[in-house]
Amino acid sequence: MNQISKEDIKQEVFDLYDDYAHNRLDRRSFVQKLSMYAVGGLTVTALMSFLMPDYQGAIQVKSDDPRLKSGYINYPSPKGGGTIKGLLSKPADAKKKLGGIVVVHENRGLNPYIEDVARRAALAGFITLAPDALTPLGGYPGNDDEGRTMQAKRNKGEMEEDFIAAYEYLKNHKDCNGKVGVVGFCFGGGIAT
Description:
By secondary structure, the chain is of the alpha/beta class. It has 2 domains: 6-52, no CATH class; 68-192, Rossmann fold (3-Layer(aba) Sandwich), CATH 3.40.50.1820. The chain has helices at 11-21, 27-34, 44-51, 55-58, 112-123, 144-152, 156-171, 187-192, and strands at residues 68-77, 82-91, 98-104, 127-131, 176-184. The protein has a 5-stranded mixed beta sheet. Strand 3, helix 5 (112-123) and strand 4 (127-131) form a beta-alpha-beta unit. The longest helix is centred in the last third of the chain and has 16 residues, at 156-171. The N and C termini lie far apart (43 Å).
Protein backbone atom coordinates (compact mmCIF):
# COMPACT_ATOMS: atom_id res chain seq x y z
CA MET A 1 0.00 0.00 0.00
CA ASN A 2 1.12 3.57 -0.63
CA GLN A 3 1.80 6.01 2.18
CA ILE A 4 -1.21 6.36 4.50
CA SER A 5 -2.91 9.73 4.62
CA LYS A 6 -5.29 11.11 7.21
CA GLU A 7 -8.15 10.63 4.76
CA ASP A 8 -7.48 6.87 4.68
CA ILE A 9 -8.27 6.58 8.39
CA LYS A 10 -11.68 6.77 10.04
CA GLN A 11 -12.25 9.32 12.80
CA GLU A 12 -12.92 6.46 15.22
CA VAL A 13 -9.25 5.44 14.92
CA PHE A 14 -8.13 8.93 15.96
CA ASP A 15 -10.61 8.79 18.85
CA LEU A 16 -9.13 5.45 19.95
CA TYR A 17 -5.63 6.94 19.87
CA ASP A 18 -6.86 9.90 21.91
CA ASP A 19 -8.22 7.53 24.55
CA TYR A 20 -4.92 5.63 24.55
CA ALA A 21 -2.77 8.78 24.71
CA HIS A 22 -4.81 10.13 27.63
CA ASN A 23 -4.62 6.88 29.59
CA ARG A 24 -8.31 6.02 29.21
CA LEU A 25 -7.35 2.86 27.33
CA ASP A 26 -4.40 0.53 27.95
CA ARG A 27 -2.10 -0.55 25.11
CA ARG A 28 -3.55 -4.04 24.81
CA SER A 29 -7.13 -2.73 24.50
CA PHE A 30 -5.97 -0.05 22.07
CA VAL A 31 -4.33 -2.61 19.75
CA GLN A 32 -7.32 -4.95 20.00
CA LYS A 33 -9.79 -2.20 19.09
CA LEU A 34 -7.47 -0.86 16.40
CA SER A 35 -7.48 -4.28 14.71
CA MET A 36 -11.16 -3.74 13.81
CA TYR A 37 -10.02 -0.95 11.46
CA ALA A 38 -7.22 -2.95 9.82
CA VAL A 39 -8.84 -3.81 6.50
CA GLY A 40 -7.42 -4.35 3.04
CA GLY A 41 -3.84 -3.11 2.91
CA LEU A 42 -4.29 -1.13 6.12
CA THR A 43 -2.63 -3.28 8.81
CA VAL A 44 -2.50 -2.67 12.56
CA THR A 45 1.24 -2.06 12.21
CA ALA A 46 0.65 0.54 9.48
CA LEU A 47 -2.04 2.26 11.54
CA MET A 48 0.18 2.35 14.63
CA SER A 49 3.10 3.72 12.61
CA PHE A 50 0.86 6.51 11.35
CA LEU A 51 -0.60 7.34 14.78
CA MET A 52 2.37 6.98 17.12
CA PRO A 53 4.85 9.84 17.54
CA ASP A 54 8.20 9.61 15.78
CA TYR A 55 10.33 11.66 18.16
CA GLN A 56 13.65 11.15 16.40
CA GLY A 57 12.26 11.93 12.96
CA ALA A 58 10.43 15.03 14.15
CA ILE A 59 13.30 16.75 16.01
CA GLN A 60 13.90 20.22 14.60
CA VAL A 61 16.71 21.37 16.90
CA LYS A 62 19.28 18.75 17.89
CA SER A 63 20.52 18.55 21.45
CA ASP A 64 24.04 19.55 20.42
CA ASP A 65 23.00 22.54 18.28
CA PRO A 66 25.90 25.05 18.53
CA ARG A 67 23.48 27.97 18.56
CA LEU A 68 22.37 26.93 22.05
CA LYS A 69 23.69 26.42 25.53
CA SER A 70 21.56 23.54 26.67
CA GLY A 71 21.93 21.02 29.45
CA TYR A 72 20.23 19.30 32.34
CA ILE A 73 20.02 20.94 35.74
CA ASN A 74 18.41 20.03 39.06
CA TYR A 75 16.29 22.50 40.97
CA PRO A 76 14.62 22.32 44.39
CA SER A 77 10.90 21.56 44.67
CA PRO A 78 10.36 21.33 48.44
CA LYS A 79 6.53 21.12 48.19
CA GLY A 80 6.69 18.69 45.27
CA GLY A 81 9.12 15.92 44.41
CA GLY A 82 12.12 17.30 46.32
CA THR A 83 14.69 17.76 43.56
CA ILE A 84 13.57 17.87 39.93
CA LYS A 85 15.65 17.44 36.79
CA GLY A 86 14.99 19.75 33.85
CA LEU A 87 16.45 20.80 30.53
CA LEU A 88 17.69 24.41 30.65
CA SER A 89 18.35 26.05 27.26
CA LYS A 90 19.24 29.53 26.00
CA PRO A 91 20.78 31.07 22.90
CA ALA A 92 24.57 30.67 22.94
CA ASP A 93 25.09 34.27 21.86
CA ALA A 94 22.75 35.89 24.42
CA LYS A 95 24.24 39.17 25.62
CA LYS A 96 21.44 40.30 27.92
CA LYS A 97 18.93 38.79 30.31
CA LEU A 98 16.13 36.96 28.54
CA GLY A 99 12.46 36.30 29.12
CA GLY A 100 11.79 32.77 30.31
CA ILE A 101 9.48 29.96 29.30
CA VAL A 102 8.66 26.90 31.39
CA VAL A 103 7.74 24.04 29.02
CA VAL A 104 5.37 21.61 30.76
CA HIS A 105 5.29 18.07 29.36
CA GLU A 106 2.47 15.75 28.46
CA ASN A 107 1.24 12.90 30.65
CA ARG A 108 4.36 10.85 30.00
CA GLY A 109 7.33 12.85 31.19
CA LEU A 110 10.08 14.87 29.55
CA ASN A 111 10.19 13.05 26.23
CA PRO A 112 12.31 14.06 23.20
CA TYR A 113 9.47 16.10 21.68
CA ILE A 114 9.15 18.37 24.74
CA GLU A 115 12.92 18.79 24.88
CA ASP A 116 12.84 19.82 21.20
CA VAL A 117 10.08 22.36 21.89
CA ALA A 118 12.19 23.86 24.69
CA ARG A 119 15.22 24.13 22.40
CA ARG A 120 13.10 25.73 19.64
CA ALA A 121 11.80 28.33 22.10
CA ALA A 122 15.37 29.03 23.21
CA LEU A 123 16.40 29.61 19.60
CA ALA A 124 13.57 32.15 19.40
CA GLY A 125 15.37 34.20 22.07
CA PHE A 126 14.22 32.84 25.43
CA ILE A 127 15.76 30.99 28.33
CA THR A 128 13.68 27.83 28.76
CA LEU A 129 13.25 25.20 31.43
CA ALA A 130 11.56 21.89 30.62
CA PRO A 131 11.10 19.97 33.90
CA ASP A 132 10.62 16.23 34.19
CA ALA A 133 7.89 15.56 36.77
CA LEU A 134 8.90 11.89 36.67
CA THR A 135 12.25 12.68 38.32
CA PRO A 136 11.19 11.26 41.74
CA LEU A 137 10.43 7.96 39.98
CA GLY A 138 13.66 7.86 37.97
CA GLY A 139 12.74 10.24 35.13
CA TYR A 140 11.29 9.74 31.67
CA PRO A 141 11.79 6.01 30.98
CA GLY A 142 12.36 6.24 27.24
CA ASN A 143 8.90 5.20 26.10
CA ASP A 144 5.54 6.85 26.46
CA ASP A 145 3.59 3.81 27.71
CA GLU A 146 5.81 3.40 30.74
CA GLY A 147 5.92 7.19 31.18
CA ARG A 148 2.10 7.39 31.38
CA THR A 149 2.07 4.54 33.89
CA MET A 150 4.73 6.26 35.99
CA GLN A 151 3.04 9.65 35.89
CA ALA A 152 -0.24 8.09 37.10
CA LYS A 153 1.66 7.12 40.27
CA ARG A 154 2.56 10.73 41.11
CA ASN A 155 0.32 13.02 43.10
CA LYS A 156 -1.04 15.72 40.75
CA GLY A 157 -0.76 18.42 43.42
CA GLU A 158 2.90 17.59 44.00
CA MET A 159 3.57 17.68 40.27
CA GLU A 160 1.94 21.11 40.09
CA GLU A 161 4.33 22.22 42.83
CA ASP A 162 7.24 20.91 40.74
CA PHE A 163 6.21 23.21 37.89
CA ILE A 164 5.62 26.16 40.23
CA ALA A 165 9.14 25.58 41.59
CA ALA A 166 10.43 25.53 37.98
CA TYR A 167 8.80 28.91 37.41
CA GLU A 168 10.45 30.32 40.55
CA TYR A 169 13.82 28.82 39.60
CA LEU A 170 13.69 30.31 36.11
CA LYS A 171 12.33 33.69 37.25
CA ASN A 172 15.31 34.06 39.60
CA HIS A 173 17.93 32.61 37.23
CA LYS A 174 20.87 34.96 36.60
CA ASP A 175 20.18 34.92 32.84
CA CYS A 176 16.44 35.61 33.13
CA ASN A 177 14.91 39.08 33.19
CA GLY A 178 12.25 37.94 35.67
CA LYS A 179 9.46 37.67 33.10
CA VAL A 180 8.39 34.05 32.66
CA GLY A 181 5.63 32.44 30.62
CA VAL A 182 4.41 28.86 30.67
CA VAL A 183 3.43 26.62 27.77
CA GLY A 184 2.06 23.10 28.13
CA PHE A 185 0.90 20.18 26.08
CA CYS A 186 -1.85 17.69 26.97
CA PHE A 187 -1.48 17.30 30.76
CA GLY A 188 0.83 20.33 30.63
CA GLY A 189 -1.88 22.45 29.01
CA GLY A 190 -3.98 22.01 32.13
CA ILE A 191 -1.02 22.95 34.30
CA ALA A 192 -0.21 26.02 32.18
CA THR A 193 -3.70 27.55 32.47
